[in-house]
Structures are given as C-alpha cells and as structure tokens.
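The protein record now logged underneath.
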Amino acid sequence: MVDAVVFDLDGVIVDSEPVWEEVRRAYVAAHGGTWQPDTQRRLMGMSTGEWAHYLSGELGVDRTAGQVADEVVEEMTRRYRDHVPLIDGADDVVRRLAARWPLGLASSSPTRLIAAALTATGLTDAFVTTLSTEQTERGKPAPDVYLDVARRLGVDPARCVAVEDSSNGVRSASAAGMRVVAVPHGSYPLDPDAAGLAVVSLSAIGELTPQLVDDLG
C-alpha cells in the first residue's frame, strides 16, 4: 500500500542541475577557486549551507560561506525569473499522481527557489507540503528531509514512494525507508551503489504512472 509520493525537484521536475553546475562553476572561477572533476557529483544533494562551505573551503573560493550562498542563490533566482527549465511532461505526471495520493516535495534547493520553480510551473497547489534541506540538520544523502516530509504528511516513510534523480537523493530516500523510483539525468548517471537502492529505474519522468506506483505497494 502506498500512502504518499514524495518528489525531488531538481532533475525530476525541473532540469536545473545543468544550470546549477553552470552558475557554480562560473562563480568558483570568478572568485579564485578551483573546480574539481568530482565537484558536481559531490554537490548534488548537498544543502545550501553544505555546498556554500564546500565552495568556500575545499574549492578555495575567496568569499565566506554566507556570501557564497547569498550570491549563488541570487544568480539562480535571476535565471529562474528568465526561464524555469521544466522537464517535458513532469507537470502532467505530478498532477496525475496528485489526483491519487498526497504529494510532498523534498528538495536541496533553497526555499525561495522551490517557491519560484513551483509558481513558474503552476504546481504549487499540487503539493501538500514542501521542504528544503536548508531547514533540516543534514542534507542528502542523510535521510532527514525525507523523514521530515513524511512526518508533515502524517504517513509512515515505509508507505511512501520517493522519486529521485541523483545518487545522493536515492541514498537519502532509501535511508528514510522509502521505496525509490530513480529517474537518472543523462549527464549525471547514478553511482552503482545508488542504482542498487532504487526499486525501479526509469529513462524519463513520463514513464511514472499511477499504475506503476500502485504496483510498488
């Protein structure tokens, strides 16, 4: 039995991971830091505070973590004002599932970017609750955000299906006890251990149907 479905935002509903990478790469280069080959993979799923400290500390950006967070999020907000890259069909999938189950959103994006994305895509009313990892103690791959969303929905995490695209996101939802549907981004494939945690892996969000969710129950 499935009592609720919990979506990630970046990479599942909006194709924002490439935008995040572009913005943060440019920011690191502009402020004296050095982008590493594994940086994007490590950043995916980190909370705002975690990635800001990572850029300021490990990558050598000459700004405080607070400045990094404010300035990068401001640039992302500007990008979203111009264009929110909705993944084809994602809004239809969300609405079809919202007609059957209460939906939650568990995102690593800051609260104001979540609001901007949902407003731009017309999906604000589809979710019973939304939560950013900036409001939890730890970001993904820790289970905090998924556990908190389940509590807000009033459901057992074991009776939730989570929809994720990144390795850290899959690890997070799985650690919370949820059944995870993975929809990996073509440019950011799942690590083997994370792929093994997903109960099903889809090639596109349009493959996520109410029947598939029912079958996971």
